[in-house]
Input
Amino acid sequence: MKFTGISLFVILLVLYFLFWKFSAPKSDQQVLKKFNQSSVIPTLSHENFKGFEYRKLSIVKDTTLPTLVFVHGTIGSSTDFVKYMKDSLLLSKANMISYDRIGYNYQDKNPVQESIAFERDMLQDILQDVNPKKTIVVGYSYGGPIALALQKKVHKVLLLAPAIYSKVEPMPWTLNFYKWKLTRWLVPPIWQEASREKLSHKEDLQKFENNWKSTPNQIVSIHGTNDWIVPQENSIFLEQHFPKNQFKLINISDAGHGFIWSKFDTIKQLLIQELD
Output
């Protein structure tokens, strides 16, 4: 029994270490290494917005092409979209930008901002460098409301499992590990930031959700039917509030929240449809 107990403890310790290491933001070198097999290596730059430094990945091959701008969720980073940014067909059809939101950068000394308004303004600042008429903003999960809050006119806003409706925002029990001071130290730093954003997101959404229709943009929302992290009711809420000529809902059968990876080919084809 003693040997079994020690073995289980060691196994849990190893798993915890791997979880911490795997989810931690990657260094510049580690990020660029992910593109070793790609035909195009992105430009990695460190930008500044209102005194906050953040990291941006840019692939600009042809200024006449449209641009995909990816906004990651919580927890997340610019590398969430590496597979898309390495795809040869997508690279032939679009330039691409992906960036780390504040609080999710490598060794970030700043906390998450817990503000959709701040995130929207930061995104609009990034969009100053691209032609808005040829720009498709892709917001995943908590990146969805940031993209939807844009007041700047772009070609289209594409939402992937957007968390935009406060009444269906789930609060997992595991958040208690962050809320309880006695256990907070067990939560890896990047997950502490994600927890902070998660806990404030519901209230922050209430400042926007009655005014989503004020966006000047065409909206496409893609949602998995089996998503329990960001329930499908979020996209159904949008469908009920937008006119049909401005909003389109695409359901992905039997897909969960991670469909941007598990259903890569499907999402890729939908992106290509919007680019053509």
Residues 103 and 111 are 5 Å apart (CA to CA). The chain has a mean pLDDT of 92.
